[in-house]
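Input for the complex:
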Amino acid sequence: MIHSLNRRASMYGALFAMIPKMFMAYQLWFWAGLVMNIISITILYFFWDAIYANATIISGLTREQTLNYVLLAFFFMPLVSNDLLWEFGSNLREGLMIHHLLRPVNFQAMNYAQQLGGLVTRMAFQLPIMLLAMFLFDMQFPADLNTWVAFLLSALLGFTAMFFFSWLMACMAFYTTEIWGLGVLLEGITIFFSGSLVPLAMMPAWLRGIVLSVPFAQALAVPVGLLAGITPVSDAPRIWLIQLGWIISMWILSNLVFRVAVRKITVQGG
Amino acid sequence: MSVIEVQELGKEFQVPQKDPGVLGAVRGLFRPRYENKKAVDQLNFQVEAGEIVGYIGVNGAGKSTTIKMLTGILMPSSGTVRVLGRDPHKQRVENAREIGVVFGQRTQLWWDLALIESLDLIAKIYDVPPARYKEVLEQFTETLELGSLLKVPVRNMSLGQKMRSELAAALIHQPKVVYLDEPTIGLDLIVKERIRDFIKKECGSKGMTVMLTTHDLGDIEELCQRVIIIDNGHVIYDGPINTIKKRFGKFREITFETAENAKAPTLPAGAEVLAAEERKLQIRFDRTVSSASKIASTVMSQMEVTDFSLSEPDLAGIVKQIYNGALDMEEK
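Predicted:
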């Protein structure tokens, strides 16, 4: 039993650890991404700064609260943007999916380990952005330990819920083989619906209703709301419970759909 | 109990039918039509432990489809597959632990990682004990000459280097059953030779059960005692390689280009005209009865020859001849 657990931990650990290595393979990509991010965060900052030029409080949020929220949301963007859909798409198009399915591993667990590896790697690559945001735009992290615990757990739960939701979307690749359109659409939806551009509190009630009925915000706006102090920490247990509900429902659905979709695999030729 | 048991196996694919023209494309959007194509139909065979079986057929005959059903990736449309007593599709993970697969046209290694990192990861996934892994890796490094490749990312490798790496990756966990789908495709003779040696040594001596698909009859001759030939999804021959070799191995074809239109020449014993076209003459002869030089000099003495070439029978030719009843006649 212990041996089996050890073995699994070591295997998933290895799957997790290979992701940073693959990231490092493309240095140019890293630098280009960094420049893009610096431009984006600068625009974001001055955009919100301009909005607060004539008001001190909008939808109950002060200038400092809003700016801190959007900066933090930008920094923690990797929480909501996994690349499962692209992964499935390229794997299916290039016929690599069969190799993954030939491994004696739970395919979903393997992907989760790797997406978690991707999350940590991408967060590490966000560090220059963090320094920039802290020293240039005065981004603040809370000093309170409880807030951090509430945030970290909520972030992990939200990320996991989003993973299963992305899995569901990624299964479309079995039917369409081409996922470029869906991928771009989903990226756009993610940026808006995750609450990375506009705090949820500023959305009209009907829009907030829609945003909260899909899981994107669970991975970003909800945990970052805790970290930015917009949501009180006393709300955390209720939030965790809702996120757990998302995880369970998405986990069941994603497995049902995958079981059907995988039969569609047609690897002709060769 | 056989290691691989295939009964009444069938696989149908839906192939979308597109009408030509803009109108056809629009119609396809609203009412797509599909045609069912049987890639594999009513397949029956068994493979015993330790056998190395050549599984051959022309392109599109259904070889890869069969292999993919045996590995559990594809779900059969009909019939049953048992590998080591398991249903490979339903028990995918358990089955995967016992098998090793090489698809000659695809790579299972991580493109951006150095070979050694891929191998380390694979050993972890298959739960190979560290001591055993070290031992096998050392041995593979020597027999496949991987020493200089271990630190190279797979994307920077040549085809031959990649294939040697693939074989190491597929066998590092010492599987009971091995599927090799065109492992020598596109390789030069030296690499081919090395890979055949490796397969013979690794699989043959360790009692692994191997199914090998290939277009190269040389692979089959060197590695297999038994061949299964399929065509259009059906088994058309299942038996010892010797029968095939005896029947077809002794024949050679010689093609002459002639200055004038060729007329049927008189030939020595053991030779026959296959085709006589305009300025082209194709002759088949029995190597054990006659020789290429004898045929050539006979033909040249009767007409003016501008060029000629000698060839061994290829797979397509053999399949065609089996259809024409070549093997039935032999057995009677």
